């Protein structure tokens, strides 16, 4: 997926988080966004993920402008914030089923994918637990299970190394990022 940011600006009151940002990323790139706290990294990722709109400028995916109500385009993108959102009161598995349904990735192969990733991330023992009872690292691993099972074209990961995951989870995530298919962009 080709990603373009064109003259993107975003302010919060008098604070300009992003000021005329231009980015052009070809498919198949792994890109890290580095900067100090408050530099606008999370704002940039939220705009790329279609969570918030820029005040000015725009985001194009394969030449198509991203709109918040463009569900087909947004299903090609998975934004994972540093604290993953969840459907509280639901089990880990119920959360995964809901996310797969939202992304229209709940076909016949979905249960095998979820089982594979739940095993890989050592989450089988918490599968039926309410999602709000998980540790921060377990919550992030459950969100990664969804990401890998959905397999979108663009991964947007905010603070993945500060996710609270154990060394096994971090190593598995790094391996999967390295093994991502050529022709995909992962941030």
Features:
21% strand, alpha/beta, 187 residues, 4-stranded antiparallel sheet, 3-stranded parallel sheet
Describe the structure.
The protein is of the alpha/beta class and 187 residues long. 33% of the residues lie in helices and 21% in strands. It has 6 helices and 7 strands, in the order ββαββαβαααβαβ. The protein has a 4-stranded antiparallel β-sheet, covered by helices on one side. Helix 3 runs parallel beside helix 5 and helix 4 runs antiparallel to helix 5. The C terminus is likely disordered.
What's the layout of helices and strands?
Blueprint: E1 3-12, E2 15-25, H1 41-48, E3 56-61, E4 64-65, H2 71-74, E5 77-80, H3 92-102, H4 110-120, H5 136-150, E6 154-157, H6 167-178, E7 185-186
Parallel strand pairs: 5-6, 6-7
Antiparallel strand pairs: 1-2, 1-3, 3-4
Helix pairs in contact: 3-5, 4-5
Indicate the mean pLDDT. 93
Number of strands: 7
Order of helices and strands: EEHEEHEHHHEHE
Give the number of helices.
6
Tell me, what's the shape? globular
Beta-strand content estimate: 15-25%
Helix percentage range: 25-40%
Return Rg in Å.
17 Å
Poorly predicted runs are 182-187
Which structural category do the helix and sheet elements fall into? Answer: alpha/beta
Query: How would a crystallographer describe the biggest sheet?
Result: 4 strands, antiparallel
Widest sheet: strand order? Answer: 2-1-3-4
Distance from N terminus to C terminus (CA atoms, Å) equals 12 Å
